[in-house]
Write a structure and sequence with these properties.
The complex is a heterotrimer of chains A (318), B (380) and C (294). By secondary structure, chain B is an alpha/beta fold. Chain B is built from twelve helices and 14 strands. Chain B is 44% helix and 17% strand. Chain B is globular and about 90 Å long. Helices cover 73% and strands 2% of the residues of chain C. Chain C has a two-stranded antiparallel ribbon with strand order 1-2. The chains are: A mainly alpha (318), B alpha/beta (380), C mainly alpha (294). At the A-C interface, α5, α11 and α13 of A face α4, α9 and α11 of C.
Chain lengths: 318, 380, 294
């Protein structure tokens, strides 16, 4: 556990000093979105990488957070922080209620069911025009503020978002190092065996599902207040697939891997402008190749390279 | 000897002057946000092509007072989030003095707060009326407001004494915006909307909605969307034997619609910018020259005819050109000059901006056409 | 136009769409029954059928029948390639891995189609004209009759194939127990490949048959695949009547929902049905007492 805390401290230090290195500008703006995607990827990893339950509907919870926050603050004048908490509670309840029947399913059936759920929520965003503004989107969402401090610049948004992201990572690290984490891994390996050993698999799966949904919801709320305009197209199936790719690239079961995956998939398109049209081909290939050859993701790849390098310089280890 | 010396001095003077001119020719940086890929690529691709073509032509002719225009184009893929990010990039990193685009209403509404805050003029190529209404200081648009298209159709219906209408719109940004206007303008023209239904952009069968319409009191059907949905609506309507007059929006003002709908396209009436019937216009039409030039130049360069959507980008660049020619080269002065433009005959219509009108067009920007024998025919 | 006529139109349109879902669902069922895998990419083979059809007919100007046969052949070959490259190497894959690979595969196929053929929508001419046919106050197009005919034909052929041919019986054996099938000398790997061939061929046929009605583009596969899967689930993954009934029920419910309740939420109706079936009766509506699992 101490090792994990050390890793976390180092990572936090890195995150906190990056803005100084980047000196503002466009890159800082992109890094804000990396922060949001990190939260979402870590949430999915808890469910997929640790508990082994596939969900193709994460975008739904993300979107619900954004729309609930947006509507409550813009149409009804709520305070953004109250709205965020209210949305989190509401989505948590929804996830728990949906989770109970949905997590009885396994494998492809679970994938299809979560996909179906995601699409239903997307259709609601699109069709419930009176409340959500429909396909034209929902403008005018106020920014976050604490007292007199308004989060209206890239730098302030960066610290707000990454502050929350670091909290989420700490929570995830804590969770996976605890008894619950071990129980989750047991379920992933063999649900039957876990049950035999006294793990309440069903309840635990639903709890992780709910936790993952709440994190995604919070990310959605923060997204809404940062961009001040939301539209249904951001929360569709395409994004759920992108999230899945982020987690797979980073490595199932590795929290920092999810950060890496989120960073790569958010930053790379910026540097490869010609990438645009090819993105679904690349995502598809990555999903297939990673699952076939490198299921531990880039983190596993990194470990392999590290070990290979250590082999080349055996003297150093002594 | 003296003459040679004078000639040499003259040459030196001329060279240094022109060198000075070359060094002083700082480019005018203009940003462009188009959805070149993604679902709205049928908008963004011709817009980007057109913008590049016009800028290249301007630069080949010497630029504006010797200064070339540098166009920085980013592809938003139709995603409002990306549009916002890229707008920030254009403003902070590329330091542009004005931005053209985005291609869709959703993206424009997302980008607007950013450009207004940074006070960079934005000339949008999207149709949504609420982009320029209410007027914001830095936001302009070149695409005709969907209000104007709706007015054209309703006027025509009133002439034909039709007052019970069914509307069928696509559940995307374009369709939703059109639907809003159809509902808002109905009372003014004495029209009752007896059916108000929608369909998804990827739906493959609209017979259910059309059956409902067939069973209602509707005397005409207005379908608001972009390809391929409306083509299916036309085909389904024919299948169900619906004989009611069918109207479409300017979203399908391209030959592709006729290709997809086939026989079912005959007799459909829609409002459109003049570009698709450029050759049928009378010579005295103020836009005719610009239209014919645009259509031919685009065809020469890209192999297909210039269309309605690319025209929005043409107008945006040319409007900026006018502002530059008046000496404006900072965001504030550009904005000022744009507002002064009056009577500019472009592709979308004749533009006249003012402090209270950043849309610049009236309903004359649209003409009504009917599809006959797989081609467009002007309707008066 | 009175209410009963409206209802009969919804029913007829619903049955027509439902037949399409049934055809796609059969593809899902065949692969599932022979390999235990849900082929997420099934919808993409339907898309390939339509797109190849457009390619051969419109661009190369082949006769419609020739284009159809070529398209089915090409799509079937793509199915085999997909199985070889993506599925076979995963002999020892985790179920999770398989899910992700088939998702990745479907995205890849869609992406390649987009790069090769672009994003445009394309139309195919109908097989026998556009004149509507009236039936009990509702109208139908000749193309719909083709769809019904093809569905019936395919079910009949399927039934005969699985009951009376050696390969069919071998496939059924794999569905029951792969290891045992291997022990009695059935080349299981070949059977897996064959089931992909069959499913992708059928999907492609479905894709070509509906393309004249619904037009085709690189991304029609997603929704069609999902709805076909829904049909198969309702039918309990049966290779025969169950899935067909599942498809028809789905189509009719969708049409009724769109006409009577709300057109915008039409797809939501489909997925709510999917969720309800998965939650309450995941073995499908028709599997109990329906001994015909294949």
């Amino acid at each position: 556990m101490r090792r994990e805390l050390l890793k976390f401290a180092l990572f936090s230090a890195l995150v906190l000093t990056v803005p100084a290195l980047v000196k503002g500008g466009y890159l800082l703006n992109v890094l804000v979105f990396v922060g949001i995607n990190t939260m979402l990827a870590v949430a999915l990893n808890l469910l997929l990488g640790f508990a082994g339950q596939i969900s193709l509907g994460q975008a739904a919870f993300y979107g619900l957070g954004a729309y609930l926050s947006g509507v409550l603050t813009t149409t009804h004048g709520w305070n953004p922080w109250t709205a965020l908490c209210a949305a989190a509670v509401a989505v948590g309840l929804l996830a728990f209620v949906i989770g109970l029947p949905i997590l009885k399913l396994k494998g492809h059936y679970l994938a299809m069911a979560t996909l179906g759920f995601g699409i239903i929520v997307f259709i609601v965003f699109n069709e419930y025009v009176d409340v959500t503004g429909g396909p034209s989107g929902f403008p005018g969402i106020p920014g976050m503020q604490i007292g007199d401090l308004r989060f209206d610049s890239d730098l302030k948004s960066y610290y707000l978002i990454w502050g929350m992201a670091l909290l989420v990572i700490l929570l995830a690290v804590n969770l996976t190092q605890s008894r619950i984490g071990r129980a989750l891994r047991a379920i992933h390996d063999s649900e039957v065996a876990a049950r035999v050993l006294g793990v309440n698999a069903r309840l635990l799966k639903v709890q992780v599902f709910t936790c993952s949904a709440v994190i995604s919801c919070v990310a959605g709320s923060l997204y809404a207040h940062t961009v001040t305009f939301i539209s249904p197209s951001t929360f569709g199936f395409h994004f759920s697939v992108e999230l899945l790719t982020m987690v797979i690239i980073g490595g199932l079961g590795s929290i920092y891997g999810s950060c890496l995956g989120a960073a790569l998939l958010t930053l790379l398109p910026e540097f490869l402008r010609t990438f645009q049209d090819y993105d679904i081909v690349v995502y598809g290939l990555l999903l297939i190749l990673m699952t076939m050859f490198l299921p531990g993701g880039l983190v596993q790849g990194g470990e392999i390279v590290w070990r290979w390098l250590r082999q080349l310089w055996p003297g150093k280890a002594g | 000897m003296k003459i040679r010396f004078v000639r040499q001095m003259g040459l030196l003077l001329a060279l240094s002057l022109s060198a000075g001119m070359v060094f002083a020719a700082e480019p005018l940086k203009v940003g462009a946000l188009f959805s070149v890929t993604g679902p709205p690529s049928f908008l963004g691709e011709p817009e980007r092509n057109t913008a590049q073509m016009v800028v290249d032509d301007i630069n080949k002719a010497g630029g504006i007072k010797g200064r070339p225009i540098e166009l920085v184009v980013y592809d938003t893929t139709g995603d409002p989030t990306k549009a916002v990010q890229l707008a920030t990039k254009l403003i902070k990193d590329d330091k542009v003095v004005a931005i053209i685009g985005p291609s869709t209403t959703g993206e424009t509404m997302a980008v607007k707060p950013v450009t207004e805050k940074e006070q960079i003029p934005l000339i949008s190529c999207a149709a949504g009326t609420k982009i320029a209404d209410p007027v914001n200081p830095c936001t302009f648009k070149t695409a005709q407001n969907d209000t104007l298209a709706v007015e054209r159709i309703y006027e025509h219906l009133k002439k034909r004494k039709i007052d019970k209408v069914a509307i069928l719109s696509v559940s995307d940004g374009f369709g939703a915006s059109g639907r809003e206007q159809l509902k808002a303008q109905a009372v003014k023209f004495g029209i009752t909307l007896v059916v108000d239904d929608t369909f998804g952009p990827k739906d493959t069968d609209m017979t259910a909605q059309l059956t409902k319409i067939r069973g209602s009191e509707a005397q005409a059907i207005i379908c608001w969307g972009t390809n391929p949905g409306p083509a299916l609506v036309a085909k389904n309507a024919r299948q169900l034997g619906i004989k009611l007059p069918l109207f479409m929006s300017h979203g399908v003002s391209s030959k592709k619609f006729i290709e997809l709908a086939g026989e079912a396209a005959e007799g459909i009436i829609l409002p459109t910018g003049r570009v698709i019937v450029a050759d049928q216009l009378p010579e005295k039409d103020p836009q005719k020259k610009a239209l014919m030039t645009y259509v031919m130049n685009y065809k020469q360069r890209y192999g297909v005819e210039g269309d309605h959507f690319g025209g929005h980008a043409w107008d945006a660049v040319m409007l900026l050109k006018k502002a530059f020619e008046q000496g404006a080269d900072t965001p504030a002065t550009i904005r000022e000059q744009l507002e002064k433009i009056s009577g500019f005959a472009g592709i979308g219509g004749v533009f006249s901006f003012s402090g209270t009108d950043h849309c610049g067009l009236t309903k004359d920007a649209f003409v009504l056409v009917e599809i006959k024998n797989k081609d467009w025919v002007l309707v008066d | 136009m009175d209410f009963s006529q409206q209802i009969s139109q919804y029913l007829l349109s619903g049955l027509a769409t439902g037949a399409i879902y049934a055809l796609i669902g059969l593809g899902f069922a065949i692969i599932y029954n022979s390999t235990g895998i849900i082929n997420f990419a099934q919808g993409e083979f339907v898309m390939l059928g339509g797109m190849f059809g457009v390619y051969f007919h419109t661009i190369h100007n082949f006769n419609l029948v020739v284009a159809l046969l070529l398209a089915v052949a090409c799509a079937a070959i793509s199915g085999v390639v997909f199985e070889r490259l993506a599925i076979r190497p995963l002999r020892k894959a985790t179920p999770l891995g398989l899910v992700i690979i088939t998702i990745g595969g479907s995205i890849l196929v869609r992406g390649i189609a987009m790069l090769v053929w672009g994003k445009d929508t394309h139309a195919l001419p109908t097989f026998s004209g556009d004149e509507p046919i009236t039936l009990a106050g509702a109208t139908l197009l000749p193309q719909h009759l083709w769809i019904f005919a093809l569905t019936v034909l395919l079910i009949a052929v399927n039934k005969l194939f699985f009951q009376f041919t050696i390969t069919g019986k071998a496939l059924r054996a794999c569905a029951v127990n792969q290891r045992a099938a291997g022990l009695v000398g059935i080349d299981v790997r070949r059977m897996v490949m064959f089931s992909f061939l069959l499913a992708s061929g059928m999907g492609a046929l479905a894709g070509i048959i509906i393309a004249p009605l619904t037009m085709t583009s690189y991304d029609v596969g997603i929704m069609l695949g999902l709805k076909g899967f829904c049909a198969a689930i309702i039918g309990g993954m049966s290779n025969g009547i169950g899935t067909v009934l599942g498809g028809l029920i789905l189509g009719v419910l969708e049409a009724l929902g769109a006409g009577l309740i709300s057109s915008g939420y039409k797809d939501a109706v489909t997925f709510i049905i999917l969720l309800l079936i998965l939650f309450l009766r995941p073995q499908g509506l028709f599997s109990r007492g329906d001994s015909e699992r294949v």
